[in-house]
Amino acid sequence: MIAVNPMDSDSVLATFGALGVLVVIFAESGLLVVGFFLPGDTLLFPAGVLCAASADQAPRLMLWQVLLCAAVGAVVGAQVGFLLGRHGGRALLARTSKRRVREAAARAEKLLARYGYGKALVIGRFIPMVRTVLHPAAGALGVPTRTFTLWQIVGGLLWSTSLVMAGYALGTTVPDADDFLLPLVAVVVAISLLPLIPVLTESRRSRRER
């Protein structure tokens, strides 16, 4: 029996390869309670690195398979999350006892209000934790289905493809790039949090004015 830690990117990729990317990204993109704690950025970037060949090693994953699985997981997962949000998502968010889920839901609502549906759905894809809550929140808040579908596809493809290709580019140019994955993933996550700065600044300002 194979023991797999779904929150550990190395474990998922070593055991399931591209199929693991599809399943985890699907859950992380829309299954609120389960997906909230799964890797997203920290799975796609290393997967891209593992698609690169080196002088003494063949690629451990196939690039086209990882790109396809990441895109399908991102797009289908977000649409499922939206449908779950449309049918009872607000009640689920209200009942949750997890503080981080409630905070991420509040940030998702602020993103939608600040940037509008299209821009928020694209920007939100790149923000860890927020992207898992964003799609159910969009359904609960009544975002039109056609608008949501269009922009979540755009955001999902941009997010999944850019991270996989960034990892692939690194793997093809830096020898033994997988030895430096931990600090590189930390940089990716830090950069992905930058869009939250205006939202957090505005939230603090509004609290001070009360």
UniProtKB/TrEMBL annotation:
Residues 38-168 form the VTT domain. It is a multi-pass membrane protein. It holds the Pfam family VTT_dom. It comes from the Bacteria. The chain crosses the membrane at residues 12-38, 62-85, 148-168, 180-200. Belongs to the DedA family. One of its GO terms (cellular component) is plasma membrane. InterPro entries: DedA-like, VTT_dom. It is found in: Cell membrane. It comes from Streptomyces muensis. Keywords: Cell membrane, Membrane, Transmembrane, Transmembrane helix. This is DedA family protein.
